[in-house]
Amino acid sequence: MEDVAALLAQQQLDAYNQQNIEEFLEVYSEDVVVMHFPGDEIVYTGKNKMRERYSQLFRNNPNQHAELLSRMVKGNIVIDHEYVTGRSNGPEIKAIAMYETRDKKIQKVWFVK
Predict the structure, then answer these.
(1) CB half-sphere exposure, 42, CA atoms < 13 A
(2) What is the extent of the structural domain holding 49?
(3) E runs forming strands in the chain
(4) From CA 83, how far away is CA 100, in angstroms rounded?
(5) pLDDT digits (tens, 9 = 90+) for 5-37
(6) What does the angle CA 36 – CA 46 – CA 66 come to, to the nearest 5 degrees?
(7) What CA dihedral angle connects 2, 74, 18 and 66, to 10 degrees?
(8) Share of the chain above pLDDT 70, in %
(9) What is residue 46's predicted lDDT score, i.e. its pLDDT?
(10) Weakly modelled stretches of the chain, pLDDT under 70
(11) Residue 15 to residue 25: CA distance in whole angstroms
């Protein structure tokens, strides 16, 4: 289970850095839920909404890149700590994303505020 979860997280990170929307979305379930952490505030649901958001993100930030600083995997949960550079608005940021996988897809994502 941990191998699959880590593989899915890595596949989406690689596709993100290549700005390949189709490969990026391939690892997500059709009804993926994206939330803020802490809490359970839903940012959006569904792969179609994710396609809209990330297509725009890639268009607006053609040089954006996320470097993986660390990864923790426990069962079907992956926590990535990333350093994001190349953003069009300038600031480089550290980001934390958590992924819950099931049935060989990412089902839920939390972004730490």
Answers:
(1) 9
(2) 2-112
(3) 28-37, 42-45, 65-74, 77-85, 93-102, 105-112
(4) 21
(5) 999 999 999 999 999 999 999 999 999 999 999
(6) 55
(7) -160
(8) 99
(9) 98
(10) none
(11) 9
Q: How many domains does the chain have?
A: 1
Query: For strand 42-45 and strand 93-102, is the pairing parallel, antiparallel, or unpaired?
Result: unpaired
Please provide residue 20's backbone torsions phi and psi, each rounded to the nearest 5 degrees: -100, 95
> How is 91-112 classified by DSSP, letter by letter?
--EEEEEEEEEETTEEEEEEEE
Q: What is the pLDDT of residue 40?
A: 80
Write down the pTM of the prediction: 0.93
Q: What is the CATH number of the domain that holds 90?
A: 3.10.450.50
Return the sign of the alpha-carbon dihedral for residues 62, 45, 100, 11.
Answer: negative
Q: What are phi and psi of 40, to 5 degrees?
A: -130, 30
User: What stretches of 61-99 show up as alpha helix (H) in DSSP?
Assistant: none
User: Could you give the CA distance from residue 51 to residue 72 in angstroms, rounded to a whole number?
Assistant: 26
Distance CA(48)–CA(22), nearest Å, equals 11
Q: What angle do CA 48, 51, 57 make, to 5 degrees?
A: 150
